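Hello forum,

I keep getting stuck at the same step: I have a sequence, I want structure tokens, and every attempt I make locally crashes halfway through. Rather than fight my setup again tonight, could one of you with a working pipeline run this one for me? It's a single chain of 331 residues.
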Amino acid sequence: MAKNVDGKIYTFGEASWHGDDVVSMENDTAVEALGKIGGGYFFEKRYVKTFLNGQETELDDRFTIVRSASPHDPVERVFDVMGKDYNIVQPLDIAYTFDERVGLPVDTLGFLGNGERMFITWKQEEFEVKKGDLIKPRGFVAAGFNRVLGLRLSQVEERVVCENTFLAAFREGGVVWSGRHNSPNLLRDLGAWMSHIKGESDRQLDYMKRFFNAMANYSMDKKEAQEILYGNVYPSKSIPVDYPEELLNEKVDQVEKSIEFSERSVDGVMDLFGGNGIAIDATAWGLFNSVTEYENHHRAVRKDPENSILFGARGQAMNRMAMALVERVNL
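Reply #2:
Ran it on my machine without issues. Output:
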């Protein structure tokens, strides 16, 4: 398992698997948690320079994102090159906003890589779907200080303590809000959505309980499972009736690849649903878990994991599965 943590991370009550953390038994705020791991970083934009007509010249529309030094990494680092509209949100400002708008103790907080990603999680009410199958929802704030990730607020089950659990939380979906760095109101919008998710948490958790329990009580055979997978989760393309003949061969090739992808995906999920998955039974809940297990752990992808999760098709497939089951179980 990859940890890829930057310095120490903050954890409440229980150490992480890698042990590179500051374990606290206090109900700390985000600002306090940030202080306990060294205070985080400061980021700034600096002009990109080039030589033009024999002179060093600043480019007025290109900037580097520079991370400050810290006690455990005492050098500055450049993360990316951005345009003039890139809006930096500082880690300390994110922590202050969390404390003001959520106001709950932090469960985990830390930085990944060389500090280019930050996370905060907090606990929400736990509930049981089936005997021994305990759901432990958490709020999850993810922040990026490069061009890949802006700010993202989600509800997940994963306890984020490292690179792998950070990516696993992204795979879960549950996105409440996301914003990119070209927004001048990025921090304001994050705060508004934090307040919203806190105010709506009881209603949202009630809906989650009802949905998960409805899936657990909905019996499903293999025929119905395949129907949902082919019809909703992994639909294949088809050739339109009115299509230019000179482009037909190219379109046929696309359709054939789409059919192969659909069949391969359905076969992979059905293999898990048929008994090779982890704690899978013949219910809608079992099919839901088969899809998430397949997408998270069994699908081969060509892109690097972060791009695949942020921009790939895996999250979309899991969302299509959830939407199809909402309709199916008559929630």
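Residues 150 and 180 are 4 Å apart (CA to CA). If your local run keeps crashing, start a new thread with the error log.
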